[in-house]
Every structure is written in C-alpha cells, then in structure tokens.
Amino acid sequence: MKQSKGFSILLITGSFILMLGLILASVRFGYQQTSFIQIVRSFTAFDGSNAHLVIQSVRIPRALIAAAVGASLAVAGVLMQTLTKNPLASPSIFGVNAGAGLAVVIGVTLFNVTSLHSFALLAFLGAGIAIVAVFGLGSLDRNGLSPLQLTLAGAAMTALFGSVTQGLLVLNESALEQVLFWLAGSVQGRDIALLWTALPYIAAGFAIALFFAPSFNVLAMGEDVASGLGVKTGMLKIWIGIIVVLLAGGSVAVAGPIGFIGIMIPHLARKLIGIDHRWLIPLSAFLGANLLLLADLVARYVIMPQEVPVGVMTALIGTPIFIYIARRVGTSS
C-alpha cells in the first residue's frame, strides 16, 4: 500500500511520539513504584534515594536499551526480507542469534568468561562470524549469491551453531546456569555502558541503511531488474550483510537473542506505509522500538514480583503472528 509523503511523515512522527511515551512509561511503571515528579526530580535534584537510584541506574538504561534493540532488530528484518525475498526472514535466519549464542557459550565453557561486557563482545564477534560464514557458504553456488542460497546457508549455519551450543551446555551444566538468562533475551539488569559500547555500530548501521534505501527499492523489484538499472547487486548484498551485523549483532550483544521482532514489524510497517525503504526503514525502527518497550512493560507484571524475560514475551506475541504469515505465504504460493 503506497502512501502520500504527508501521510508517511505523519505516521513516522506519530510512531516517534508513541515511542517517547512508552519510554516514559517504562521509566514510570514497575515493581518499585515511582511518580512522574520523582522522575523529573531525579534529574533536577538527585538525592540518592532508592527511587532516584532505580530511575537513573535501572529504569532509564532499560528503556533506552529496549528502544535501541527493538529498532535495530526491526530494520535488520526489513533488509533481510528484501534481500532474500523471504517473508519469514529475520536476523535469526542468517544465524546471527545462533552465532552470538555459540560465541558466548564457548567463552563461558572454555575461558570462564562471566561478565556481561565480555558476553557482549563475544556475541558481537559471533554474529559477525555467522554472517561471514553464511555469505561465504551462499556464494559457493555457480549462480552467485542468490536469495535462495542465502536462506539455505543461513538455515544450515543456524542448525550447526545451535547444535554445538546445546552440546557444550550439556557437557557443562554450570555454564548453562550462567548463560541461560542471557540466551532467553532480556533488557533487565543491563548496564547502560553496554548500550554506549554498541551504539556507534548501531548508529552506523542505521545511517548506511538510510543511505542505500533508494537502491533497496530497486533490489526489491528483482535482481535482474536491479542489474539492468545499473545497481551493483553483489556489492549491495554485501552492504546488507554489513548492516545486519551492525544492527542485529549490536542488539544481540546488548540484550541477548530476542526473536520475532524482525519478522513481525516489517510486515506491519509495509501494510501501513508501503514498500519505499526511505519511509519503511524509519517507521520500522520506531515500531520495533515500540513493540519491545511494550513487551518489556507487560513482562514486568505477568508474574510479579518476578519478571518474564522479554525474549519469552516477544515469542509469545510473535508465534501466532509467525504462524499466520507462514500460512498466508503457503496459500499464496
């Protein structure tokens, strides 16, 4: 569905305002009750009270991380679906989550890594290696780097990384206890320093994605059409791989593997704004941020005073939507 420029701007602006509201709600609500006045005073007259400490050191980092991670995963999903022509494509299909998880598990089991900052570095490294492996394996076909080959290579590497990860965890139960919460995906208890570490990479990913948005529009019309119009499709695919590493890899490094956002949000955004990536990318970013912020808010209240990992919550939301998309694709093929 193609929308006018004015409507697209209005839609993106509304999504941005909603994101700001959800960030404020994320800071306001939770097990430790706080008020809007306390939020303001934590900035203007910080007194070291428990409420101010919770706001500054727990709630604000959590909200900002959720927004950044949700936005990154959504945009990575958009580009992967554009590249593979697969409506079920998401960062996990390229083995990003599996590669990051394997790197963390190797660090814990073989090198006794325990800190979240080390987890983040290992996860980013694992995500990068996974993308390189998938692109390398997908390029072995004589026809070059085709969407089908990429999808198959991603599925193969995901299965391989996942199997090795499970094997290592079976052999080392203490490692399972250390990484289980991270593997479930969560924005709870994450240090804001993790976000500042990953933010330059995430910001670079967004900037590159917006720069190549017109080329993505041409690629979406088909590889033959894009080549005929002078687009260097091979180089463009490599750029998409780089963007996915920066966005999805940075997200996994900060919050662990969180699924389904990269599948759900691109479909919703296309329904609302159409397929023009110049508008689709920013709208998907804000919608992804909104979804993860909302899922995190709900996760706080499901079994209060305990919390459900937000990765579990997005899976509960995303599974029926995934089934619906899969069924629709099956009936249309």
Automatic annotation (TrEMBL):
Bilayer topology: Multi-pass membrane protein
Subcellular location: Cell membrane
One Gene Ontology term, aspect cellular component: plasma membrane
TM regions (residue ranges): 6-31, 92-112, 119-138, 150-171, 192-213, 238-267, 279-302, 308-326
Classification via Gene3D superfamilies: ABC transporter involved in vitamin B12 uptake, BtuC
GO MF entry, a single one: transmembrane transporter activity
InterPro entries, per the entry: ABC_BtuC-like, ABC_transptr_permease_BtuC
CDD domains tied to this protein: TM_ABC_iron-siderophores_like
Pfam families attached to this UniProt entry: FecCD
Keywords assigned: Cell membrane, Membrane, Transmembrane, Transmembrane helix, Transport
Gene Ontology biological process: siderophore-iron import into cell
Domain of life: Bacteria
Family: Belongs to the binding-protein-dependent transport system permease family. FecCD subfamily.
This protein's name: Iron ABC transporter
Top-level taxonomy: Bacteria, Bacillati, Bacillota, Bacilli, Bacillales
